Amino acid sequence: MAIRIAWMKGDGIGPEISEAALSVLDELSRMYSITYEVKFYDLGDESLLKRGTALPQDTIDGISSSDVAVKGPVGESALESIVALRQRFDLFANIRPVRSYKGVPHLKEIDVVIVRENTEDLYKGIEFTAGKAAFALKVITEEGTRRIARVAAQYAYNRRKLVTVVHKANVLRASDGLFRRVSMEELKGLGLQVNERYVDAMAMALIRDPENYDVLLTPNMYGDILSDEAAQIAGGLGFAPSANIGEKHSLFEPVHGSAPDIAGKGIANPYSMILVVGMMLNHIGVRQNDKRLAEASLRLERAVENAISNGSLTPDVGGKKKTLDVAKDIISALRSS
Length: 337
Ligand code: NAI
Ligand code: MG
Prior knowledge:
Elements: E1 3-8, H1 14-31, E2 36-40, H2 45-51, H3 57-64, E3 68-71, H4 79-88, E4 93-99, E5 111-117, E6 127-130, E7 133-136, H5 142-157, E8 162-167, H6 175-187, E9 193-198, H7 199-208, E10 215-218, H8 220-234, E11 241-245, E12 250-254, H9 271-288, H10 291-309, H11 323-335
Parallel strand pairs: 1-2, 1-3, 3-12, 5-10, 8-9, 8-10
Antiparallel strand pairs: 4-5, 4-11, 6-7, 11-12
Helix pairs in contact: 1-9, 1-11, 5-6, 7-8, 9-10, 10-11
């Protein structure tokens, strides 16, 4: 059966990197006889301008009736579009693998997965003003913490069996205190090494000794911040894919935003979006127990490594290639591997 993909190109560089990623998906589908059907939907600032809403109903319906969703970055309407989608489809696990590649200038060698709770915390969006003050409610629940801790355990189990719980429970005793306590309970007795770090110290330690970390388990906002930091340690936002996973639905997207400063120039770094395709194929492969998809994803990872080491890089990391040239180089690397 064809994989039904709902694809939202998004804003800024979204359409450019989508084109690059779709060409790579097309090649992989031929190589591995993967059948898929892509339907495009509006989302974000352009949609708001054109249709009066950043998240149209047909987009919601399209995602509902697809096997998986992929989105490019959106712009200023992120709250009404992507944050709303995470809530709407209860995409509670945000998975952000970050690794450095040989050939991309990076600060340090790093290979971590940030497992970020994706529906609670300050991003629940409960904000209000009263007089001259403004308030935002930080929501952390026991069930929300339990289920994300279980996801972190699964990832750690398939990696170095090392989880670091990130929080600020010394100050936020009720909310982060709960996150810490419940995470520790869930991770206990699974044969994993479990550490903890205050988020400020974590930001320091990640840049000082990234090799000491494997899976970072975080509440929503800390994961958002630390994943940009981790991506920069690895060489920049242009190489960072992510997954938003729920019980029924999943949505894959780059970590970065719409990069308005370089949009429309054809020079956006497409690796993030191309790696998004790999993550998506691997995820469906696991869910449908289809080994071909996992193989396709692995082969893509190797082709990405090859293209990078042959210098196929865009200007954000000191290269001269255009967005679509990188896609072509990856396709050549796929064919010759
Ligand atoms: P950004 O990630 O768009 O850009 C930060 C810097 O990184 C810029 O200099 C940009 O040119 C560069 N950059 C990012 N991705 C790149 C790529 N693929 N290739 C080359 N360079 C790249 O973050 P910023 O500027 O804070 O936000 C821009 C817009 O994106 C905002 O409107 C924000 O709301 C939105 N945003 C959307 C997200 C989403 O759709 N999930 C996530 C983060 C931000
Ligand atoms: Mg972010």
